[in-house]
Amino acid sequence: MHECVESEPPFGQLQSFTDELVLRVQGFLVDASLPPLRRDQIPTNTHRLIDLKQSVTITGLGVQPFDDAAAAVLAVYHQFSAHLKGHHLRIWQPERANAYLTLTFGNRYLTAAKFSDNEPHVDLSEVVDPFNVLRPHLSSQVHLQENVVEYWERQAHPTRPSFKRIKPDMIMPGTMVELQVAFTVAKLGRHDYIFLPKLRAICILNRVVHTDYNMSVIKILSARNVSPLKKMKHKVGYDNDKENVNAVEAPQKQLKRLTLNDDRMEVSKA
């Protein structure tokens, strides 16, 4: 297993109503569409409300562990494809930005009420719809636990990092994050299916890229700290995992050891 920033899940364990394999993957945030919802995001056709979703795109800037994670997601896609014999699973593959592989994960805000199976509804007002621009338009749509995404930030500590909940508008492109993700397929029409990499939680691991846009620095940090796709001990959460978070240096420590030699950024020896 490659070295990674040990994030010792908490992110607060979510209650889950269906069995799903939740994995975690780290990378640098390239793009994000996160709550809160604004009025200009609400479609005039209420039948399109079901399509509203939040999503994030991450990259490893070409480092092997992230590329391995992308290959693992592709393998999950092929597993689904093998189990859908006689049906058509639409083609999915990782995308690229500036020649680097990227992965995008999303989650719809709403579920059609007829598919809710009497699951309890979750309040939209605090995180997703604090401005009350969505709720007045809802009729046959509900917000369930399966639509919930959690938002966390890793807090530096001399001996043991901690985690705190944050508002999603604090999550900006350029930060190093860990995502907790799952995978499913959805039926479109009679025989078509679509592969859906699903976002379950996002945790900020490091904001260093906000203050240092030197690509060499970013690539060194990602090479040492971005991990491949890893299975979670819990459904979703950062509350109770007891993994050793001190096995690998935090990226802040590694950044302090960076030196500039011959126009190349190198990690100096301790």
Task: Give the low-pLDDT segments.
Answer: 1-18, 242-270
Overall pLDDT: 78
Question: Oligomeric form of this entry?
Answer: single chain
Distance between the termini: 23 Å
Give the tally of β-strands. 14
Instruction: Please write the string of helix (H) and strand (E) elements.
Output: EEHEEEEEEEEEHHEHEE
Structural category: alpha+beta
Query: What is the approximate shape?
Result: globular
In words, what does this structure look like?
The protein is an alpha+beta fold and 270 residues long. 15% of the residues lie in helices and 31% in strands. The chain contains four helices and 14 strands. It has helices at residues 64-83, 208-211, 215-225, 251-256, and strands at residues 23-33, 53-59, 88-89, 95-97, 100-108, 111-112, 141-142, 150-155, 162-165, 176-188, 192-206, 230-231, 258-261, 264-267. A hairpin with a 2-residue loop joins strand 13 (258-261) and strand 14 (264-267). Residues 1-18 and 242-270 have low confidence and may be disordered.
